Fold this protein.
Amino acid sequence: MAFPHDLGEEVQSLWTCTACVATVPGIVHGKPLRNCTKSEFMDEVLAQIRASEALDGMIRRANGGRGLEEFAILKAEVWDEWEFDPSGITPEQPKWVTTTNTRDHRPCQATSIPNLVLAGAHTETEADIWSIEGAVESGRRAAKIFEPEVVVKPQHKPLALKFTSWVDDAFFALRLPHVLSVIGALVGAGLAIGLYELIVRS
Ligand SMILES: Cc1cc2nc3c(=O)[nH]c(=O)nc-3n(C[C@H](O)[C@H](O)[C@H](O)COP(=O)(O)OP(=O)(O)OC[C@H]3O[C@@H](n4cnc5c(N)ncnc54)[C@H](O)[C@@H]3O)c2cc1C
C-alpha cells in the first residue's frame, strides 16, 4: 500500500492497530494480551496480523496479488505510554473512550465563554465514538460556531445501522443493556425454552 508522504527509503506504509479483545488467550503464548510481557505482546500482535486473511486479501487487492508475507515489517512499536506488568497493562494517562458511562460528561463545542470553543474526539458529536472521525467532526462543529459557512458533513449510516442505532439509543435511554446483549439473551432464552419443550415432549 502506498503512503502519500515520505516515511523513509523502502517504507511503503505506516499502520496503527488496536487490540480489541485483550482478555482472550492468544494464539502464540496462550495468554490474554493484557497479561503479556512487552515482547510476548509484540509476538502475539504480529502473529495475529499475519494470520488475518481479510488483511492479506486487502493487501493483495492493492498490490497486484502480492500478499502480506511478501512485504517485510521493518519496525513494530508498542504504544510508548504503556507499562507492562503481569497483573495487567497500565497507561501513564488513562485512555478516554466514549462509552455509555462517559456519555453524560461529554462537553459540547460551545461553552459559556463566548470566545472559547472546544474541539476534540471527547466532545459531543454525531460520530459518537472516540475516533479520528469524531475529532474531525468536532473541529468542524467548533469552527462553525465562529464561521457559520463551515460545513459539518453528516455521518453516513446505512439504513440497517440507522435502525439498530435507533433501537440502541432507546435501550440506552431506558438504562437497558446493549441491544446485542439483549438480542443474545432473548435468543438464548428462546433456545432454552425450545430445548425444554423438546425434552418434556419426548
Ligand atoms: C493506540 C491508539 C490507536 C487508535 N486507533 C484509532 C484508529 O484506528 N482509528 C480511529 O479513528 N481512532 C483511533 N484512535 C483514537 C484517535 O487517535 C483519537 O480519537 C483522536 O486522535 C483524538 O483526536 P483529538 O484531536 O481529540 O486529540 P489528540 O489527537 O489526542 O490531540 C490532542 C493534542 O493536544 C496536545 N496537548 C495536550 N495537552 C496540551 C497542552 N497543555 N498544550 C498544548 N498541547 C497539548 C497533545 O499533545 C495532542 O497532540 C486511536 C488512539 C490510540 C491511542
About this structure: The pocket of flavin-adenine dinucleotide is lined by residues 16, 18, 79, 95, 120-121, 130-133, 135 (CB under 6 Å). DSSP finds five helices and two strands in the chain. The chain has three domains: 1-92, 103-146, 159-201. The longest strand covers residues 82-83.
